[in-house]
Amino acid sequence: MSKILIADDNKQIADVLAKFVAKEGMEPVIASDGEMALQLFVKHAPNIVMVLLDVMMPKMDGFEVCKTIRRDSMVPIIMITARDEDYDRIMGLDMGADDYVVKPFSPTEVMARIRAVLRRIKSPAQPGGQILTISNLFIDIDRYEVRIGTESVSLTKKEVELLYTLANTHIKMFTRDDLLDKVWGADYEGTDRVVDTHIKRLRAKLNNYKHPEWDIKTVWGRGYKFEVL
Q: What is the pTM of this model?
């Protein structure tokens, strides 16, 4: 049976989420701190299809747990934060989270976000083949692997998806709303600032490697484009 790992030190919240997960036909696995979350993730990894991860937890916070999981797995992660601040949201997304919700929240909202993320995984926005090669750039979206020449580039999940989306249709200019819809999904409720932040970080990482034949260009006042030079 598919399982969802719920990591939250608030037992009441964890129990409520567990009931809703069970109603969706999935098995909840509950952790009350960060270390337990990692232990349970390793134990149940083959069957875990989603991780709900509270930011503020004992022993290890949600950001560190997310970072650790992302070293070996691309399982979808939704961060849960008590602070409605851009810094927390961007930090979580930049570490590889797929979405976030802010406390207090409705359990039905969380389940809607879970369904939305799982739909995006089952039906990727990018059509066609999942391996893309342009000049010295190699992207395997299935493995979330990016290479420039012979060197592997360490990117977060969202950075890989963003780069793939731009490069896979490099004749097109994408507005911020286009990228929000394709990479974060139509259900994403944050601002388009997250696109600019991810583009900035993605460029900084890519610029550590030589790529004279392609680049991500800003179309001023409109959006972004992957340009073959």
A: 0.62
Strands 137-140 and 145-148, bridge-based pairing: antiparallel
Positions of E strands within the chain: 3-7, 27-31, 48-54, 77-81, 99-102, 131-134, 137-140, 145-148, 151-152, 174-175, 214-219, 223-228
Q: Which residue has the tokens 């030589």?
A: 210
Predicted confidence (pLDDT) per residue in 114-126, tens digit: 887 777 665 444 4
Where residue 147 falls among pLDDT bands split at 50, 70, 90? Answer: very high
Packing angle, helices 62-70 and 34-44, rounded to 10:
30
Residues in the chain: 229
39-53 b/e (C-beta count within 10 Å ≥ 16 → b): ebbeeeeeebbbbbb
